[in-house]
Amino acid sequence: MPWAFEDGMLWKGWDDDYEDMQIKIYNNTLKYSKEVGFGIAPVGWAWNTVLKEKNDTLHYLHLSDWNHPSLRGSYLMACVIFSTIFQESCCGISFYSELPKENAKCFQIIASDIVLNSTTLWNLAPLSNYALPYTDDFFSIL
User: What's the pTM value of the predicted model, to 2 decimals?
Assistant: First the structure.
């Protein structure tokens, strides 16, 4: 699930602020996930959670272009994707990039919580449902 633009869709013919745009992304992603049957890495929802908690959000997760992720936004996205793929907490990962340790740990907690406490909502099947694409001797042919 992508994140909304920091300023929403305030272009000609649009009047959605950040929150309106993120809710539309959320609802449509859930709808299509159920219709088509794909799992969701809820990056945009994690961003929404962080931005609701933060008072001064100007370019906090976004770059100054109002769209692309800042270092903080990229780190939070990576945490969500980790927890989605491995269906385990990313809390305790020791790589913080250039973020303060406290920020990184907070993002790890938020990402893990959002993904792992709502696996049904995000349409994530248990990992045991996925077959490995190779046999034990797969690497012997290399």
Answer: 0.86
